[in-house]
Design a protein that fits this description.
- The structure is a single chain.
- With 208 residues, the protein is α+β, with helices and mostly antiparallel strands.
- It folds into three domains: 36 residues, no CATH class; 126 residues, Pnp Oxidase, Chain A (Roll); 37 residues.
- 32% of the residues lie in helices and 29% in strands.
- The protein has a seven-stranded antiparallel sheet with strand order 2-1-5-6-7-4-3.
- Strand 1 and strand 2 form a beta hairpin.
- It starts with 11 loop residues before the first helix and ends in a 9-residue tail after the last helix.
Length: 208
Amino acid sequence: MRTYASDIAFTPAVKAIQEKNNSRRSYARMERGEGWQTTVTPELAEYLADLDMFYMGTATAEGQPYIQYRGGPPGFLKVIDEHTLGFADFGGNRQYLTLGNLSENPKAFLFLMDYANQRRVKVWGTARVVEGAPTLEEKLRDPAYSGKVERVILFTVEAWDVNCQQHIHERYSRRQIAPVIESLHKKIAELEAEVERLKSNPSLDLTH
């Protein structure tokens, strides 16, 4: 039985090390205050809406961890209800490590990175694989995305927290930088056109 939502991560061993390193007092205040969230809030839903990748952690029955990159169209990790997230599982390299882990250990973790805005959200919970659910697959798929949906993975949220921005390096996806590149190309074309116009005007002295 957990006293606080953050106990899912702050185990007795973790708290002992926090105490040793003089950070336990501040986290204890956090626990007694607002603490970590346990439901999908509008703020989390808004964060997910623009996310086109995340990392998913699972483990074997023996506790051997595995981290998998998940990518898709923006917002492909969707809110099912205030306790559940879901996403379409696309065909990959057919190793099925995540599926195998979840078949014997439902505990899972989502690491949601927004490199461009230097934000990260950590989500603890459990996950399950849903096969042969066309209605759910249709709800979670994006018709504009070419990935083939093979199944659905549902994630039950137990606790989540926003991590600090420290040490996050800014990175941008092609989707994010495309408008900037397009604007630069347009500007270059305008400047080239202006140069040609000036060259074609013999009344202008371009040597000075």
